[in-house]
Amino acid sequence: MEFTKRLLNWYHENKRDLPFRASKDPYHIWVSEIMAQQTQIATMIPYYNRWIESFPDVSTLAAADINDVLKHWEGLGYYNRARNLHKGALFVMEHFNGIIPSTKEELLLIPGIGDYTSSAIASIAFDQPEIVIDGNVKRVMARYLNYTENVNARKAHKVFESFLKKELIESKANPSDFNQAMMELGALVYTPSNTLCVGSPFKEMCAGYRGENIGQIPYIPKAKKVPSFKKTVWYYQQNHSLLVSTDDSDGLMKGLLRLPMTDGHQDTPPLLTLKHKFSHLEWDIHVHPLSEATSANENWHLMDLNEVNSKAMITAHKKILIAHLEQIKPSQ
């Protein structure tokens, strides 16, 4: 099969030396795939290394305190990924005697593991003939096939999966190498800006390389504009204590520490402004000082800076502490 031959030859010559590729441990692959979702590889690697050092296996993660788990995730965002990893580890300990299953069907039973992650673990760790389709793979296949419809629709997933599974099975290639090669090709060659697929190992086989693509490939409908909400963050520090809030009644990032925040903007000039986007909304934040600690909200209280450092704080508010005002450092 020429497609697979060219793909794997390119992969073995060009693949990056990534820490999680050195292991067939399904737990390590599980963690790496969850971290890589919504995060650039270069960004997630130090997080991955710290995570594996602290939680080297399923049993260690399952036994860990959720606050410690969230602290290790701090800065990666989308904290439900960390919570689901923890829930998943508990599930594996309870239902699979601590052993991660090898089949996609059983992997799908684990909280936080969906179609993509189950296929990745099954194929990369256990060499099962499953197909992994992420954003990188969609980009490769859309340009290769000149697929002009919405690549995020279920129809596109079926088209790409059918093509790739046929190639995988008929070529008798190693599923782990095959899937990782497709993802790597999308990350390194079939990038968003390389619309003509320059450097493609497929060359004349690829519609994009031949210049046949019409318009922007892959086609992804424009996302709807998210609503923006005005917020005021209040800052107060007293010696080695900081005024913080545990109010997560808005349902966002449950259990994470924050700075005191109220709705709306103040009439006076702010110390700092920033905007923080979530997947479905945006915060337009103005930061203002408080002259004294206040009990205006029962969830606001002074916390020792060492304790603040030990807890995970929502990214928007962590930015305020790091980029402005005073750097929080543990007492000597």
TrEMBL record:
<protein>
    <recommendedName>
        <fullName>Adenine DNA glycosylase</fullName>
        <ecNumber>3.2.2.31</ecNumber>
    </recommendedName>
</protein>
<comment type="similarity">
    <text>Belongs to the Nth/MutY family.</text>
</comment>
<dbReference type="GO" id="GO:0046872">
    <property type="term" value="F:metal ion binding"/>
</dbReference>
<dbReference type="GO" id="GO:0032357">
    <property type="term" value="F:oxidized purine DNA binding"/>
</dbReference>
<keyword id="KW-0234">DNA repair</keyword>
<keyword id="KW-0378">Hydrolase</keyword>
<dbReference type="InterPro" id="IPR023170">
    <property type="entry name" value="HhH_base_excis_C"/>
</dbReference>
<keyword id="KW-0227">DNA damage</keyword>
<dbReference type="GO" id="GO:0006298">
    <property type="term" value="P:mismatch repair"/>
</dbReference>
<keyword id="KW-0326">Glycosidase</keyword>
<dbReference type="GO" id="GO:0006284">
    <property type="term" value="P:base-excision repair"/>
</dbReference>
<keyword id="KW-0004">4Fe-4S</keyword>
<dbReference type="Pfam" id="PF00730">
    <property type="entry name" value="HhH-GPD"/>
</dbReference>
<dbReference type="GO" id="GO:0051539">
    <property type="term" value="F:4 iron, 4 sulfur cluster binding"/>
</dbReference>
<dbReference type="InterPro" id="IPR003265">
    <property type="entry name" value="HhH-GPD_domain"/>
</dbReference>
<dbReference type="GO" id="GO:0035485">
    <property type="term" value="F:adenine/guanine mispair binding"/>
</dbReference>
<dbReference type="GO" id="GO:0034039">
    <property type="term" value="F:8-oxo-7,8-dihydroguanine DNA N-glycosylase activity"/>
</dbReference>
<dbReference type="GO" id="GO:0000701">
    <property type="term" value="F:purine-specific mismatch base pair DNA N-glycosylase activity"/>
</dbReference>
<keyword id="KW-0408">Iron</keyword>
<keyword id="KW-0411">Iron-sulfur</keyword>
<comment type="function">
    <text>Adenine glycosylase active on G-A mispairs. MutY also corrects error-prone DNA synthesis past GO lesions which are due to the oxidatively damaged form of guanine: 7,8-dihydro-8-oxoguanine (8-oxo-dGTP).</text>
</comment>
<dbReference type="InterPro" id="IPR011257">
    <property type="entry name" value="DNA_glycosylase"/>
</dbReference>
<keyword id="KW-0479">Metal-binding</keyword>
<feature type="domain" description="HhH-GPD">
    <location>
        <begin position="35"/>
        <end position="188"/>
    </location>
</feature>
<dbReference type="InterPro" id="IPR044298">
    <property type="entry name" value="MIG/MutY"/>
</dbReference>
